[in-house]
Amino acid sequence: MRPFCYKTVYAKKKTRLCRVGFYMEKLIVRPCGALRGRVGIGGSKNAALPILAATLLCEGPSLIGNLPAIRDVELALAILSGMGVAVTRVDRATYELNTNHAFPPAQPDPLTGRMRASAYLLGACLGRFGVGRVGCIGGCDFGGRPIDQHIKAFVALGATVSVEDEAICVRADHLHGAAITFDTVSVGATVNAMLAAVRAEGETVLRNVAREPHIVDLAAYLNRCGADIRGAGTATIRIRGVKTLRGCSYSVIPDMIEAGTYLLAAAATQGAVTVMGVDPTHLSPLTDVLRKMGADVDCEERRISLFATARLRGSTITTAPFPGFPTDLQPPMAALFSVSLGESRVCETIWRHRFRYVEELQKMGADIRLQGDGACIQGGQLHGAELCVPDLRAGAALLIAACAAEGESVLHSPSYIERGYEDLLLKLRALGADISAV
Ligand code: EPU
Questions:
Q1: Domains of the chain
Q2: Ligand 1 atom at shortest distance from the alpha carbon of 393
Q3: What is the whole-number distance in angstroms between the Cα of residue 360 and the centre of ligand 1?
Q4: Is the pTM of this model over 0.85?
Q5: What is the band of 139 on the pLDDT scale with cuts at 50, 70, 90?
Q6: Is 145 in the pocket of ligand 1 (CB under 6 A)?
Q7: Which tens digits make up the pLDDT trace of 302-313?
Q8: Distance from the CA of 424 to the center of ligand 1, in angstroms?
Q9: Whole-angstrom Cα distance, residue 114 to residue 221?
Q10: 187-197 helix and 45-54 helix, angle to the nearest 10 degrees
């Protein structure tokens, strides 16, 4: 197959931004009954984005496989391409990234304002060039999304951090190892500290770090490139800095949030769905709750099957860093609670304002009361409504609710969902959903 050059395609389609996907104006969802069938799960968004940033630290090409065909990956490739990285598509999910001629941006790329993971360029650029700049970091709006812990790590490693012309700038003549204890468990700060420390001189010890599977995946990629990182997946990570890293071939882990979303859609429609190509250990916080609610959940080596022959019982979830219940599945879980039997409770400990979907579910007749950092949900029957998608996972929640509701729903601004779900319409339709895009 003739490889295609990402840069050229991106330049030709500047107005559309993305090679895959398209901007949808609205989605029309009609009742479909039980969702049934098998669905293949793509690569993890939240693992792919740090790994793409990490390629900047390596000499020679990296071949990154199982990249999900989603908007955020497209943005990451476009931003890297703008920094001189030669990005070549090898096949649908595999890209070669050669960073030999990469350079630090003189001005922050405006595209960095479109996603949260742009922050990873700070750590990666520090490690590679000793200087990095990003604009106003984007991403879903959950109220404030501070980066004080990222800054704490950069400063401890010997960098200075400043805000210049609305850009965040990091600089270091010399990065050195440090002992850093994070005040709060943060995925992003853990990633950025790892990226900056991996080529720093000496040993870095990171305590109270995130333990998510995507942190383990980033460490695995960097170690394959020649880094010396131990303890990823536990609360303490030890990194011995190395002088050089060499690109390698690596395949990103499956997306546990995508898989969880389809399991929740199956549960809400009293269906039977098998998610294929997943790691069930990543999803045990979800599958434990689904079993308690009365679903029949069967985990095998690379797949999870869920059968729900009746409405499930309500339950309680409290979100927490891994291995707790993932905050990214909180909105889709609330959609399931809205059609379950009896009362359910949601306690959100990570993004206190991640409840913008509630108003939309209420338009469908959901009985939800917000209380402090949580919500109390009385299950019942939902009806179709005109809905506005406020963010990525809220969009997934509204889709699940619309599939389970009586009557037609229209979802406006659904392109948020393309940021994180690959082939969403195709996959949902294959399971029996009646859904069309305008
Ligand atoms: N926090 C701080 N200071 C910091 C960083 C974080 O106080 O410097 C706080 C946040 O306010 C929040 C908590 O720590 O209360 C956790 O934030 P974290 O840094 O872990 O979140 P993030 O790195 O910005 C990633 C995912 C999110 C996911 C969270 C939590 C990516 C690109 N984003 O965000 O994913 O919700 O971890 O697991 O990996 C999504 O995929 O829809 C999504 C929002």
A1: 2-42+254-437 (3.65.10.10), 45-251 (3.65.10.10)
A2: 42
A3: 23
A4: yes
A5: low
A6: yes
A7: 999 999 999 999
A8: 24
A9: 25
A10: 20
